[in-house]
Please model this.
Amino acid sequence: MSADTPPATTDTPVIAVQDLKRRYGDFEAVRGVSFSIGTGEVFGFLGPNGAGKTTTISMLCTLIRPTSGAASVNGFDVVRHPMDVRRSIGVVFQEPTLDEQLTAEQNLRFHGFAYGMSGAAVAERMRELLTLVELWDRRHDRVKTYSGGMKRRLELVRGLLHRPRVLFLDEPTLGLDPQTRRLIWDHVLALREREAITIFLTTHYMDEAEFSDRVAIIDHGHIVALDTLDRLKDGLGGDIVTLKAEDGARAARELETRYGLSAQQADGVLTFRVPHGDQWLPGFVREFPLRLTSIAVRRPTLDDVFLSLTGREIRDAADEPNPLHRWRRMRRRAR
Amino acid sequence: MKALIRGFWVVAYREFLRLFHQPARLVSSFATPLLFFGLFGAGFNRLVGQMAPGVDFVTFMYPGILAMTVIMPAVFAGMSVVWDREFGFLREVLVAPLSRTGIVLGKIGGGAAIATVEGLMLLVLAPAVGVHVRLLHFLVLVPLLLLLSGSLAAFGVLIGTRLKTQEAFQTVMALLIFPLIFLSGIFFPVAAVPTWLGIMAKANPVTYGVDAIRHVLLGAAASETTGRFAIGLTVLGHAIGPLEEAGMLIVLGALLVAGAARAFAHGD
Model:
């Protein structure tokens, strides 16, 4: 999917962000990010918790004001024309924002009315979207009887109800089990196809970021890389080969002298990178003079990209205490 | 302007939807006022005797009980703000193309309308306490109750935007509501109590709401300012009437609404 969609170079971007910053007290959550997103693109914002993803999305959704810099959505400046921005976007937040006391239908009707839709328009659109995510039969049930996955689907429907131009998905599958996550993504992709909508996605799940046309990797409030998935991976210098030989040290020397490859050695496993590893492998296996125990070649994952850009795995980074939470706690105590 | 009006009505509409899903809330807001009415009525009615021609203690208390019924659901508007924040729904509202002021007005208006309806439901007791409700009473009571409950709802929202947890809100409200109720002349004529208590009652805005409702329901008897049980309210030697009281509530309500709107707009 990512291969056949070119990076956003369309004349007018749907989202344009220029040196956007947000400071909380002494802590700079977002330290000057810039990017633009074209119509119909799925743009992934990938980074560990506390990297500044939610702060950025909150600024684009007009929930918080930038400290400095500029951002526009659908051509409207987020500070000067927040109402026009809000009309142009749909948002699925990280934590549930449904009224669980009300039924699904009542939640959607509230939403439609809040966006100035007529009762008839709401009813028609509701039927269409609820049917699509298989919640039509449950529309009269109160949301508190829904499972986590059903609530997410309903929020997806709600986010699209008023036909926004951009859909923001902030960690859309956080806290869901793998099967439910898969199902949610099936629905997101089907809806995306149907609505021809631009999607701004934040996630710290690598596999979810793979659904994006382009990915921005954000760490400590900076964008450290922004490109298509393939180019980010190619930037690593090829596919990753892991190899085990009977004599590891000799194999490493052999790789160095014969092929000019410097391998990293850990636990008897040699790891190195080769462009187009799949084509390179057969010849190598035929010619390599030493006995091999095992060999594997794989495409780099976003994990590898993240590791090479930040020097750590995203999972390690996610375990770091979130500085924003720390700041909030401090502020609360100060009161 | 459109965003303001839409904010007002959708938010108020949801308050009503929620009420229909929690009918227990309706019952519970009648429980306390009716309990006090029944107990104090049974306990003191014969003891107190006639307070004015045709007005015994139960009749005297009745307009106050009606006001008391309004207080709880009105202040509850603030609780609903706290809830929305805690359960995340607030973000759905804030990201919608609605004006912040409209949202606040919807919370206050919805709470006030629900409170007023509940207050009016207490009119079914009127015949039992010897009050004859006429259409005119009704027409005057509706705006008066809206005014009183609107001010209280604004007060609740003002506090609700400041306090971020249910526990904090409930604690503060428990501390504030009882003085508001018991120092309001619901259970005693303000003119007939010791000076210190009278001063505290006159400093309580609810007192004027209660007195205004009493004027509407009891008529001339409510203006009586002499005798052992002077029912009427005097401030600085001036016998105050329902129109002045309504005026006071309008000013106070406007200030509280403005304060709540300000607090909400700057709160997040």
